[in-house]
Amino acid sequence: MKQLLVTYDDLYLDWLLGKGDGSHPTNPVRAQLATALLKKRLGERVRVIHPQPADKVETDKRAMLLVHDGNYVSRTLAGTNGEWYENKPSVAAAGCAMFGGTMRAVEALLTGEALVVFNPQGAKHHARRASGSGFCVFNDMAAAALLLQAQGLKVLYIDWDIHAGDGVMHLLEASGIPCISIHLASGYPADSTMQTGVAGELHNPEKHQYNFNVEHGANDEVFMACIDAAADIIDKYQPDVILLAAGADGHTGSGNLGQLANYTGKGYRYAAQMIAQKANAYAQGRVIIGGAGGYQPLKETPETWALVVEEIYNTVCTTDRRN
Question: pTM for this structure?
Answer without folding.
Answer: 0.97
